[in-house]
Design brief:
The complex is a heterodimer.
Chain A: E1 4-7, E2 10-13, E3 19-25, E4 31-37, E5 43-51, E6 54-57, E7 65-70, E8 73-78, E9 87-94, E10 106-107, E11 111-115
Parallel strand pairs in A: 2-11
Antiparallel strand pairs in A: 1-3, 3-8, 4-5, 4-9, 5-6, 7-8, 9-10, 9-11
Chain B: E1 4-6, E2 11-14, E3 19-25, E4 33-38, E5 45-50, E6 54-58, E7 61-66, E8 71-76, E9 85-92, E10 97-99, E11 103-108
Parallel strand pairs in B: 2-11
Antiparallel strand pairs in B: 1-3, 3-8, 4-5, 4-9, 6-7, 7-8, 9-10, 9-11
Classes of the chains: A mainly beta, B mainly beta.
Chain lengths: ~120, ~110
């Protein structure tokens, strides 16, 4: 089983619908992240969380919200999806001790979202 | 705004050649730097990280860091067709990794 699991892996929805992407991890990491990837634009940070009570906006948080339900779970919501939110979304984790303290990210397999 | 710049490519090299990938960053306070490889539709996978000036070698890969010039590079020796992918440079801001847009490498056999 993957250490960082994202569900759903693929989702097609319509404009205006509410969508939740879920992420769970078994790595025991405190830090969790949501990134968005569009063709030719690399990975852009949406939100990040250092623990259950610490949630921070990234560079492109507008139109998104998050919930850190537990140390191991971090969900991304689109309250009213629009077509330009069509993208590949990645959840990632990072540790804070040993080699993990370098900031290395461990990625989930991605969730491909299409908004029609 | 903290930025990471990479040439988008595509960079095309023949099999067995050296591929050179470059990256510059704007935040002089950045401490650690990463190269990830990403195949189409897949998640990024770590190739190397570096945090000291100079070279760091791992098999066919060498990362080079010059903090004074705010420049990071990745050399791939004896390039193989399986190295064909997008290479993402990332910089640790202290709270998150900021990524460049990636360089697409194509290795022809």
């Amino acid at each position: 089983d993957a250490d960082v699991t994202q569900t759903p892996r693929n989702r097609i929805t319509k404009t205006g619908k509410r969508i939740m992407l879920e992420c769970s991890q078994t790595k025991g990491h405190d830090r969790m992240y949501w990134y968005r990837q569009d063709p030719g634009l690399g990975l852009r940070l949406i939100y990040y969380s250092f623990d259950v009570k610490d949630i921070n906006k990234g560079e492109i948080s507008d139109g998104y919200s998050v919930s850190r339900q537990a140390q191991a779970k971090f969900s991304l919501s689109l309250e009213s999806a629009i077509p330009n939110q069509t993208a590949l979304y990645f959840c990632a984790t990072a540790g804070t001790s040993g080699r993990a303290s370098t900031g290395e990210l461990f990625f989930g397999e991605g969730s491909r979202l299409t908004v029609l | 705004q903290k930025e990471v710049e990479q040439n988008s490519g595509p960079l095309s090299v023949p099999e067995g050649a050296i591929a050179s990938l470059n990256c510059t960053y704007s935040d002089r306070g950045s401490q650690s730097f990463f190269w990830y490889r990403q195949y189409s539709g897949k998640s990024p996978e770590l190739i190397m990280f570096i945090y000291s000036n100079g070279d760091k070698e791992d098999g066919r890969f060498t990362a080079q860091l010059n903090k004074a010039s705010q420049y990071v590079s990745l050399l791939i020796r004896d390039s193989q067709p399986s190295d064909s992918a997008t290479y993402l440079c990332a910089v640790n801001t202290g709270t998150a990794l900021i990524f460049g847009k990636g360089t697409t490498l194509s290795v022809s056999s």
